[in-house]
Amino acid sequence: MDIHLHDEMEQRIFDELSKMTIIDAHEHLRPEAEFIKAPMDWAWLLQYVINDMVAAGFEGGVYFPYSEGLSPREKWEKLKPFWPAVKHGQFARIMLLGLKEWFGVTDLNEQTIEHLDREVRRQQRAGFYKEALVRKCGIGKVISNGKTWEGYDHDFMRVIVNIPQIVCQKQLREFEQKMGRTIRSVAQLEEALAEYVERAVAAGCVGFKTVVQPVPPLPQGIAPLVQHIIDNPAIPSEAQRQQLASWVHRRCLDAIRGKDKIVAAHAGTYADLSSHPVNFYALMEEYRDIQFDLFHMGIPLTRETGNIAKHLPNVIVNLNGAALTSQHMFEAGLQEWLDFVPVNKVIGFGGDYQWMPQLVWGHLQIMRESFAKVFAARIRRGMIDFDASIDVLRQWLWDNPKRYYRV
Ligand SMILES: [Zn+2]
User: Fold this and answer.
1) Where are the chain's structural domains?
2) Is residue 1 pLDDT above 80, yes or no?
């Protein structure tokens, strides 16, 4: 479970990385005031591990850790049968590194979950974000994907907000409520989308976030379809939803254009490949004056994702969350990217956690380990030297996120 380095060069790179102040370029962490009052127990530490448990057969769903009405012990009783199936995987490894560092715990069992439970609640206190992120991890700035821009300390934690997803009447009504205005026509929706962008920028957001998805060219006369979801609760067909998503994205991108804000996009990681980065290529090519950041290395589509960044000057790529899935896939993909993606277009780290800043530690440690292995292998092959390796890593972990996100 611990970090394993095999030679002096790997160790040197790892040690250098451990001293570096970095930008954590992607989290979903809530404002600290929300963290403090959330009804937490030990199971909240499972964030990604629960997905593996569900894949392994647990029927309680991925939101089970946050369910109320069950005692911490009862939650463990339900999850326990699935722990052996997932405990040697990458999600669990990263969590366990954090549990060891923060709580001295190396496994989940009846005794350790009680200890975790007590300690997790004790850590729900003012100032804990900085303890966990700044003092433990050397993080200088965090970019969090907020549900809203409200409630954040906009100096330490900068915010990106989602491009609204509006492909049916229910989503339209939610957006109406959020904006506090009535939307009964296509023109009113268009105005509200532009106003949303304006408000986010005025509130200090550093960018916007979406998910790469099919965004087909708009057909002539899309207005009646937009009006249709304003007037009708029926869910549109798959093809219509894609056209609506395409229309909403274009209206938002038109509003973002000229504001010097980046658009980040979740890429890869869904098994159905709906977030295949190639689906988004034409849109990013069309909006060449907007900077896009493709997230998660596009895992498992690392080649396709890197290849887009190789060809489109306005697309950068982000390693956040990529090693969460598989460190081996991550290292292989990164070795290839170093062959063909310019190093000024890569952002190096993002923890991708929602609630528990304690988990960032394990993720950062395995990134340091992987960076050490990948660069040491290139040094051994005579492709780069130590100083140049550290220079590239500093660009990825500080200079590039600072420049592209203007934090
Ligand atoms: Zn994320």
Assistant:
1) 39-122, 128-405
2) no
